[in-house]
Design goal:
This protein is mainly beta. 7% of the residues lie in helices and 42% in strands.
Amino acid sequence: MNTNTVRLAPTVFASMLLTFLSTAAADETCMSPYMAKIVGQEDFVYVWTLGVEGLGDEQDKLVTVDVRPESDTYGEVVASLSVGGRNEAHHSGLTDDRRYLWASGLDTSKIMIFDVHTDPSKPSLARTIGDFVQKSGGVVGPHTNYALPGRMLLTGLSNSADHGGRTALVEYTNDGDYIATHWMPTDDNLNGAEKSGSFADGYGYDVRALPRRNVMITSSFTGWNNYMMNLGAVMADAEAMKRFGNTVVVWNLHTRKPRKILDVPGAPLEIRCAWGSRSNYCFTTTALTSKIWLIYEDDSGDWQAKAVADIGDASKIPLPVDISITADDQQLWVNTWNDGLTRLFDISNPHAPVQVMEQKIGAQINMVSQSWDGERVYYTSSLLANWDKVEAPDGEDLQYFKAYNWNDGELEHQFTIDFVAAKLGTPHQMRFGAYSLYGK
C-alpha cells in the first residue's frame, strides 16, 4: 500500500513536531496527540451513519468508503455494518493504537466498539457498552470519544436526572471497562475551579488535551431535552433557547480537576488546538452567535478566552458546526450547517483570523476531515436526526459523503455518495483507516 504511518511517544512527538509541520496539514490534527498518525494516503474513511425510518434497514451503521485512488472500488462503499436500532449516531473516536473505533449514540447512550485492525476494509463489532448511564452515575449522551494512553475519555451532553445540560467526563479502558466519572463544575460545586465570569453551567460537549501544558479543555452545548427536539421547536421556545452552554473549562490533565471556567457565550462546540511547541492556544466556534473564539494562555500563564472573528452573518443563523485546524497552525476550516458552506480562515495571527475562501458544498453541511498531507478534504452532511433538513433546493445535495482534492487553494470535486439514494441513512462523523497501520 502507498501509505505510511508514524508512531511517536508523547515526549518525542512534541519535540519533533515543528520539523514535521512544514509539509503536513490534516484532520489528523483534530485527533489526540497520543494517537498513531496516517501521514500518507489513507485507504478508507469510516462514516458513522444515522439510521432513518423507512430507509434501508433503518439502523445506525458504520459505512466504509474506499478512498484509494488506484483501487478498483475507489469512491465506493465497500462495507456497511448495522448495529441494531437508531441510537442518534453522532461522534466516534479511535483508541491510541487505532485498533478500535468507539462510536456512540446520543439518544440511547450506547457505545459501539468496532475492530478496525483485523480487516480495515471490513470493520467488525467487537463490543457494545449498554450500561454507560448506570456505570457513569447518570451521564447521558456520550459525545466525544478521545484517546488517552490506554484509555478513552468520553464527554457527556446530558444527565438522567432531568435530561438537561448538566453532565460529566467519563473514563474507560481501551477494552471498554469503566474507570471514573468527572462532573463538570457548577455554581453549586466548583470543585476547586476558578469561576472567571458569569457562568458555571456544568454543560459539556467536546474535549482536547495539550499534554506539554498539562491542560485539558472542554466546551459546552445542550442537553437531551433540546438535541432530541425538532430544531424549529427549539428555536421557537424561549426557555429552550436559554438551555445552551456558555462555557469553556480548562482542566488539569493529570488530575482531571477543573482549573478555570471561561465565559464563551453561544454554545461553543468543537475544540481544535494548535500543534506548535510554543502555540499555547485552541479555537472553538459558537453555534448561536457565529463567532470564532480563541482560548489561549497569556504571558502570565493564565488561560483566557476572547472572540476573534465573525463567521458569516449571525442574523442569518449560519450555525457553525465542525472545524478543522491545519497542522502548521496557519489555517482553519469552518463549516456552517444552515447555509451549506465551508469556509477557510487564515489564522497565522490567531488573535485576528481572516476568511480567505468559501464554497457551497450542499443544502446543509456538518463534518470536515482533511488528510494528513493536506491534499484531500472530505465532507458529510448530517447534524442531528431531528435537526436535519428534509428537502433540498434543486441541484443541491442533501445527505452525502463528498471527496475533494485541495490543490492550489481550490477544492476539486472527486466523487459524491448520496446516502439517501444508497439507502444507508444520514452520514455524520468520519474517521480514517489504513492497512499499513497494522503491518498489512
